[in-house]
Each structure stands twice: as structure tokens, then as C-alpha cells.
């Protein structure tokens, strides 16, 4: 992996100019909750990559992890687009401004855009698969026993998660509440159904039956 500061759970966080500037941007524009979550996503994703014997670019994985929830921020709440797309577009702008080759830009964009779409990223490029793996580990506990108790404790000691379940669900709610139509067909509809009184989730079958086609 890339050289850098002392490793956490034997995983090094990239310390390239690109990674350092991404860290600063995320720390300046998101909450402490999202910052620590994003760093854990990278670390857990990297550990899952090692366990799966995947060859991945640590820098691209790091950027994907750090930007993946940026679109939950207040300035994106009137965009009318899924927060994953807003997050992915911010990462794309950042990477292009640093001259990153388009293949790398595409991988990061795809990793972020698909991180709440289960069942697909695992079959794509390692960076795409591992952003989702890191998110699923930290938020859903999928593969919890794949990481040793010692490694998990080391990561959480550096990037704590006090009251994380409640706080991350609140962040999801606030991020997508102003644009409920963007939850159609994805996991964030569950969030609004639990936390927003009066929310009515989209119904795929009803949409088909009520389409303008006569038959």
C-alpha cells in the first residue's frame, strides 16, 4: 500500500497530495460524524480487499471513501438528485482538477454512485467493490467477523463511533428528506419511512400499472 503515517490495523492511509487535500476538504465541509465514518470506510474496505486478495489503488479507494457521503450536506438538498450522484460528481470535479486520469475518475465516480445499490458493486472493479464493502461493514455490520477484534478496536479507537447508529440514520434522514422522490427503488426509502411522518414510498408495480401505456 501507499507509504504514509503509521498504519492502523496494518493499513496505511495514503499521504499523497491528492489524499491530503481530500481529507482537508471533507473535514472542512462535513460533520465529524461523516468524517470519521468515511475514514473507517476506507480502513475497513482496505481490510476487506486484503482478505479477498484484491489488487486496488489505495488512493482511489481513499477518495471514494472520503467523498461517498458528501452529497448529504445542506448545499445539495435542493439538487433534486440522489445524494450518491451529488457525492460522486463532487469527487469527479476534485479528481479532474488534480489531473487524475479518466479511468481513475470513472472508478471513483462509480464506486460512490453505487455504494447504496447492493448486489452489483462486488462484481465490478476492486475500488468500486471495496467502497461498498467498507460502507456495508461500518453501517450494516456485514462481514463483521471478517475483521479481527484487535483491528476493529484499533480503527474505532482512532475514529470513534459514539451513538453511531442513531446519528448516521439522522444524517441520512436530513440529507434526503427535502428530495424524497430520489429514494424511489433504493434503501433510503426505508429511512424516510421510519423517520418522516407522512412519507409515502414509491411503488414500482403501481408505477407500471399507472403508466400512460394503454396495455
Automatic annotation (TrEMBL):
This is HD domain-containing protein. It comes from Streptomyces argenteolus. Residues 34-129 form the HD domain.
Amino acid at each position: 500500500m501507499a507509504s504514509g503515517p503509521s498504519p492502523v490495523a496494518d493499513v496505511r492511509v495514503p499521504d499523497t497530495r491528492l489524499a491530503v487535500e481530500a481529507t482537508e476538504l471533507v473535514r472542512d465541509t462535513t460533520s465529524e460524524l461523516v468524517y470519521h465514518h468515511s475514514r473507517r470506510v476506507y480502513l475497513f474496505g482496505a481490510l476487506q480487499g486484503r482478505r479477498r486478495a484484491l489488487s486496488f489503488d489505495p488512493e482511489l479507494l481513499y477518495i471514494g471513501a472520503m467523498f461517498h457521503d458528501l452529497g448529504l450536506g445542506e448545499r445539495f438538498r435542493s439538487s433534486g438528485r440522489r445524494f450518491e450522484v451529488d457525492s460522486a460528481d463532487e469527487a469527479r470535479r476534485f479528481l479532474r482538477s488534480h489531473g487524475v486520469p479518466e479511468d481513475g475518475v470513472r472508478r471513483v465516480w462509480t464506486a460512490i454512485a453505487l455504494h447504496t445499490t447492493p448486489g452489483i458493486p462486488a462484481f465490478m472493479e476492486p475500488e468500486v467493490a471495496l467502497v461498498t464493502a467498507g460502507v456495508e461493514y461500518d453501517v450494516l455490520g456485514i462481514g463483521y467477523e471478517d475483521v479481527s477484534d484487535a483491528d476493529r478496536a484499533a480503527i474505532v479507537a482512532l475514529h470513534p463511533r459514539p451513538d453511531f447508529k442513531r446519528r448516521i440514520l439522522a444524517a441520512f434522514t436530513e440529507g434526503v428528506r427535502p428530495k424524497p422522490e430520489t429514494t424511489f427503488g433504493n434503501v433510503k426509502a426505508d429511512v424516510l419511512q421510519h423517520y418522516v411522518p407522512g412519507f409515502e414510498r414509491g411503488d414500482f408495480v403501481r408505477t407500471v400499472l399507472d403508466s400512460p401505456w394503454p396495455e
